[in-house]
Write a structure and sequence with these properties.
By secondary structure, the protein is α+β, with helices and mostly antiparallel strands. It has one domain. It is about 15% helix and about 30% strand. It contains three helices and eleven strands, in the order βββββαββααββββ. It has a six-stranded antiparallel sheet. Strands 2, 4, 5, 8 and 10 form a five-stranded antiparallel sheet that branches. Strand 4 and strand 5 form a beta hairpin. It is globular and about 40 Å long.
């Protein structure tokens, strides 16, 4: 079993066969990992948070629940989670426009570009960035329905295991956000790790 690195502020893509699982490790305890899954035969068929929320009747997936595609087909199953179970399914991936709105005047690394670059490393040309499953991201919903950019509730070494319900390509981004506290009060993105399990 080989442990691989998702470099800080960068992305990685991995091909999984049906039945394989991938363990995502929050190595330092405060790193959000944006996560996508695509069907390799058609990138227009992908893991969808809006469809997953409907099918599970839940805001965020729990252990034993399935993650569904935009065609309401099973693609991943959350098999294990040693974290407090707080994962965001609402927020779009950060992109260059998000950072412009936050005041950046020069290019800032972002999860949308990380996804595209990671797929390009596999020779895949992506033209659409779906909303990811934001593993370990804490977005509290306040009583007045406002959303807060919360600090992660995870601890160093917390893990999530996702098992493939079908052949798929899983993409990760170690979120580069260093303006809001989404990656912890220190606002310092760090690497995360993963390993493929049979």
């Amino acid at each position: 079993m080989s442990i691989e690195t998702i470099p800080a502020t960068r992305g990685k893509a991995v091909r999984l066969k049906a039945g394989q699982a991938i363990e995502v490790i929050n190595t330092h305890g405060a790193q959000v990992v944006d996560t996508w899954a695509f069907c390799p035969e058609d990138l227009r068929h992908f893991m969808s948070m809006e469809h997953t929320r409907v099918e599970n009747g839940r805001l965020m997936p729990a252990v034993g629940q399935t993650l569904f595609t935009n065609r309401r087909e099973a693609i991943l199953v959350m098999e294990a989670d040693t974290s407090p179970g707080i994962h965001d399914t609402i927020m779009a991936a950060c992109d260059r426009w998000r950072y412009e709105h936050l005041g950046c005047t020069e290019y800032h690394r972002n999860c949308a570009d990380n996804m595209v670059e990671a797929l390009a490393e596999l020779g895949i040309d992506a033209h659409h960035v779906p909303q990811p499953l934001n593993l370990f991201m804490n977005i509290p919903i306040e009583a007045d329905f406002t959303l807060t950019q919360g600090v992660p509730t995870t601890r160093p070494g917390d893990k999530v295991v996702l098992r493939a319900a079908r052949d798929c390509i899983v993409v990760f981004s170690a979120c580069p956000q260093d303006i809001t506290p989404i990656n912890g009060v220190g606002r310092k993105p760090t690497e995360a790790h993963y390993c493929v399990l049979d």
